[in-house]
Request: fold
Amino acid sequence: MKHSYALPILCCIFFSGILIASPIESCAQKDQPINTTLTSSSQVSSLQISLLTDKTSYSIGDEIHFEVVFFNRGNSPFRILVDDTFIGENIQCTDMQGNKYSYEGGYHSWSPKAGLFTGRTYFLKPNDKINIKMDALVYDNYQLIFSNLFDRKGSNNYEELKKNKKLPSSFPDKYLCAGRIFSLLKPNKYRLTYIYETINADKHWKFSAVKTPQETSLDLLWIGKATSNPIEISIQ
Reply:
């Protein structure tokens, strides 16, 4: 699992997100058809991942509502790690020619304590699935800005942050967070993929004290790499 802080065992610096409702809700709405472009999910071992968006075309100022579906297609239960802070690090973004776009730190990024995972685990029995929602804003200069999975409103002085970042007062508070930023620079058609990867060292993560034992257990952690179906979106 990649993150922007050091594991206690691996002395390396890595990285790893906006939930408006429960993480296990579906983003499909009657007035928001889901983008089903290239919906055949890749299958790696027992973990299958599907990536969805609410539309196929967006403009500056629009929000993109993503949904990531984790499905246990195997015969044994397992757990997965899901970060709720550094959203966007699991997203691979390319243009239609395959050129990759790197992400930058969010408008209000920070570094947690070494060895502390900024998220939780989810338990999946065979044939279980979990739906995780993520939001991203298409901003000026074609920036794609991800938000945290959970609203931390009240924990920051947003107006002061906006002044410091030279952002207008109308800039949405929820995007003043550690969610990653992709600078796309121009209108184009883009391909997005969700990549999930864990290694044995991830079994040693520590969690925030506010998490429950069910949210922090690393027993039966799924180890490996799984890639979702690619989603094609147009940003105008």
